[in-house]
Amino acid sequence: MKKIIISSLLLAGLLCGSAYSSFANVNQKVLNAFHSIFNRASDVRWTEYKDHYFVSFRMSDEIVEVNFDHSGNVLNSTRYYKAQHLPLNILLNVRNEYPEKIIHSVTEISDEDGMVYLIQLKDAKEYIYLKSDISGNLEISDRFNNAG
Questions:
Q1: Which residues are CB-neighbours of 130 under 8 A, at least 6 positions away?
Q2: 12-56 pLDDT, tens per residue?
Q3: CA angle at residue 32 from 31 to 36, to 5 degrees?
Q4: Quick one: fold of 26-145?
Q5: Helix (H, G, I), strand (E, B), or coil: what is residue 142?
């Protein structure tokens, strides 16, 4: 029985150690900033580059990617999500302009220049890729026939 308990504790220790191994090279300032902003993150994966850190993770039903400088400042971020997370003004504009289309996915990009939303619409005939600013001004960036 003791061997089973000791083996279980060793295995748990190894699993816990591997769960945090992706944080091994990330400095404490960056980790503190990350945890203060994204305290509900899961499936966190870090990559260290010469001049910044890149982290990807899940928050609820979103996939998020963030670049941090070595001081813990957010350089830019990208979020991938469904229509229900779009700001209401943008969602209403898309639904008014394209009532027959389904919002398939949204990519939100935020950096020092501001925020932009890339919205993929679809129906049985085509895909439409829209670009929106924070005010909800829509612009078609691409259009494809739906082959299937």
A1: 94, 117, 118, 119, 120, 121, 138, 139, 140, 141
A2: 333 333 333 356 589 999 999 999 999 999 999 999 999 999 999
A3: 115
A4: Nuclear Transport Factor 2; Chain: A, (3.10.450)
A5: strand
Q: Where are the domains of the chain?
A: 26-145
**pLDDT tens digit string along 104-119?**
999 999 999 999 999 9
CB atoms within 10 A of CB 33: 19
- How is residue 137 written in tokens? 């001004």
Burial (CB count within 10 angstroms: exposed 0-12, middle 13-18, buried 19+), residue 122: middle
DSSP for 8-59, written as a single string = HHHHHHHHHHHHTGGGTTS-HHHHHHHHHH-TT-EEEEEEE-SS-EEEEEEE
Measured between alpha carbons, how far is 58 from 65 in angstroms, rounded to an integer? 9
User: Checking phi first, is residue 134 left (phi over 0); if not, alpha (psi -120 to 50) or beta?
Assistant: alpha
pTM (predicted TM-score): 0.79
